[in-house]
Predict the 3D structure of the following.
Amino acid sequence: KRNVVTWNAMLGAYAEQGQGYMSVSLFKQMLLEGFLPDKVTYISMLEACAQIILLDEGKKIHTAIIDNGLDLDLVIQTSLIYMYSKCGSIEDALSEFHRMPMRDVVAWNALISGYACCGFSAKALELFQEMQKLEQNLIPDKVTYSCVLAICGSIGALDIGRDIHSDVRKNGLAQDLIVCRSLISMYAECG
C-alpha cells in the first residue's frame, strides 16, 4: 500500500543518488495515481530538476508550489534558489531570494554558489560581503567559506582570500577539514 510518505522516500532516494530522471519519472507516476505532493515531495523534485538541469520542469513544480500555498516556506524557497541557479536562471534565483521574508545562511549560500556556478564570481563575492553587512547576526558557515574561498582561488583574489582566512579563524572554523582543504586550494591556485 502506497502513500505520500512512501512516494517521497523513493523520490528522495533517486534524487540523492543523482538519478534525477528516475525521480521525475516516478513523480509523474505518483501524480497519475492520484497522490498529492507535499513539501518533502517538492523539495526532492527541485533537487532532481537541479541535478539534470530541467528548468522547464522546475518552473512547473514552482507553479504547483504556489498553487498549493507553499511558496513562502523557507526551505522550499531555498530549494528554488538552488534549482534556478543550477539550471542557469540566475534572475529567477535572485527574484526568489528577494521574495524571502527572512534569509538564513543556507539561502545566502545557495545564491552565492549559484552566482559562482553561472560564472559571476565577482558578484558572488559582493553577495558574500553584502551578507555580512546586512545580516549582522548571521555567521557564515563552512559551506559559505568553502564556496567563497573557491571563488577567490578561481579568480586569483589572494587579498580577499587572506581576509576570509582571517574571518575563518575568528569564527572558529580554522580546524574544519572542508574549510582547511578550501584554504589550501585557494592559496595554491593563487600561487
Notes: Residues 39-52 form the longest helix (14 residues).
